[in-house]
Amino acid sequence: VQLQASGGGLVQPGGSLRLSCAASGFTLRNYSVGWFRQAPGKEREGVSCISSVGADIQYTDSVKGRFTISRDNDKNTVSLQMNSLKPEDTGVYYCALVTIYEGGGSSWFKGDYWGQGTQVTVSS
């Protein structure tokens, strides 16, 4: 049972990358999946998540309008399309199985099972 993130790399500001989270040993369609990132010296933060049926999608404010999460249940993958990248998007990106919570008019998600990360560096 494994989650593997891929697609990271070095890109100039304003560029794009597409990250992919692939599952092996289990069916990803049964789970909500999230992307997290951790920049050097900072805490890990949730970037985006998508529910198992794709009806609930969340983004952290700093990536809204630039990042798009999607899932392909036939391929057993979840992707994160990242456009208009900024230096502050630099970090190690992880995908994880998540639990989505709702309360008090807001919603959030937490990672339950983590895959290995992929490095994203945005620099000129």
Key features of this structure:
single chain, 7-stranded mixed beta sheet, 4-stranded antiparallel beta sheet, 11 strands
What do you see in this structure?
Helices cover 0% and strands 57% of the residues. It has 124 residues and is an all-beta fold. Strands 2, 4, 5, 6, 9, 10 and 11 form a 7-stranded mixed beta sheet that branches. It has a 4-stranded antiparallel beta sheet with strand order 1-3-8-7, with no helix packed on it. Strand 9 (91-103) and strand 10 (106-114) form a beta hairpin.
Strand content: over 45%
- Give a count of the beta strands, DSSP E runs of length 2 or more: 11
Query: Which residues form runs of ≥5 with pLDDT under 50?
Result: none
Q: State the major sheet.
A: 7 strands, mixed
Residue share in helix: under 10%
Would you tell me the structural class of the helices and strands? mainly beta
The shape is globular
Report the mean per-residue pLDDT as an integer. Answer: 95
Cα end-to-end separation:
38 Å
Radius of gyration: 14 Å
Topology as a string of helices (H) and strands (E): EEEEEEEEEEE
Secondary structure: elements and pairs:
Blueprint: E1 2-6, E2 9-11, E3 17-24, E4 32-38, E5 45-50, E6 57-59, E7 67-72, E8 77-82, E9 91-103, E10 106-114, E11 118-122
Parallel strand pairs: 2-11
Antiparallel strand pairs: 1-3, 3-8, 4-5, 4-9, 5-6, 7-8, 9-10, 9-11
